Amino acid sequence: xxxxxxxxxxxxxxxxxxxxxxxxxxxxxxxxxxxxxxxxxxxxxxxxxxxxxxxxxxxxxxxxxxxxxxxxxxxxxxxxxxxxxxxxxxxxxxxxxxxxxxxxxxxxxxxxxxxxxxxxxxxxxxxxxxxxxxxxxxxxxxxxx
Amino acid sequence: xxxxxxxxxxxxxxxxxxxxxxxxxxxxxxxxxxxxxxxxxxxxxxxxxxxxxxxxxxxxxxxxxxxxxxxxxxxxxxxxxxxxxxxxxxxxxxxxxxxxxxxxxxxxxxxxxxxxxxxxxxxxxxxxxxxxxxxxxxxxxxxxx
Amino acid sequence: xxxxxxxxxxxxxxxxxxxxxxxxxxxxxxxxxxxxxxxxxxxxxxxxxxxxxxxxxxxxxxxxxxxxxxxxxxxxxxxxxxxxxxxxxxxxxxxxxxxxxxxxxxxxxxxxxxxxxxxxxxxxxxxxxxxxxxxxxxxxxxxxx
Lengths: 145, 145, 145
Known about the structure:
The structure is a homotrimer of 145-residue chains. The first copy, chain A, is mainly beta and 145 residues long. Helix content of chain A is 8%, strand content 65%. The first copy, chain A, has one domain: CATH 3.30.1330.80. In chain A, 50% of the residues are buried. The interface between A and B is large, with 41 and 38 residues.
């Protein structure tokens, strides 16, 4: 993965170019930690995955159900945000993927392996954006106060 | 719904955090009016809805067909724009939603109820962006002159 | 197609408003050439198409498979980027489309005919963003070095 710096001030925007075999979430988390990113907008992101794990949150059960996508699939959209939870950058990403016949599958993005590329914009902000674990849902939510 | 201000100049960007039970469109329209927003980019937005109404525009009939989505559904993307129609802020949003099995459903976003969260970026611009009702389609279109 | 200039500095953002009958890719490529755009973020874009051609990249065969979408379809998302290949602006766009029943179809966007509108944000950057044809895949990839 390589970061292409497109703008530096007043906000910093990079286009992250991932390549075949890249494991998106750990690489992105490493980038966030290395760069000290505490708040950010992620997306649009397009490309293709060889495999991915998506999840669906069942609010009645209060938990995520994960399901695996065996690729290849096109990535028609990956987007979301970066906030801070317990002092660490916290990603929240959703994805829409499409198969050979164009049919789409989507959900909360848990993991993804790239082939041949993923091109993902990220804009970071200086302001704090904090998550806290919500007592009712158990989810790390942004303050909606 | 709470607005988290991420940037103030030269453009203003907020991340809007909606919570369970929030009725997205009226809350967003209230925010636009309160803040005097006349032009804006909306999205990316991700989260989940307990229900939503989407619409499909049939150009031959010249009208929208609405259909209801019974959730829970993940929101893999909500995005669009804000312009001004007859002096009032006018939202135009489309959404892609995904069900428990990952299958996707999309269209023009008419209404949506949040559960447990929707996290939606909005960037406002000082320039005017005007819609006018198009004689041929009856739709409030941007000037394409 | 008309460009509505929303911001001029430090980066330039336009909302492009396409109308019925507009052939999206050639019009967008003409805009990129006329404006000398070498690097950009494209999206979010929403609207509707009367027809489109999408493609799926098969990494084993090393080639794109194209398929035609007969509309009308809503455009729930068009996004991607602009880089430079051999001195010319190079678009890379993916799209998610939805049919009358809300079902979605997506992929790499090859061509699209608008009806009645497409509203597409584009932000240009001064920095160079270069593509080179990758020996292994034959694709014009961003440097991932």
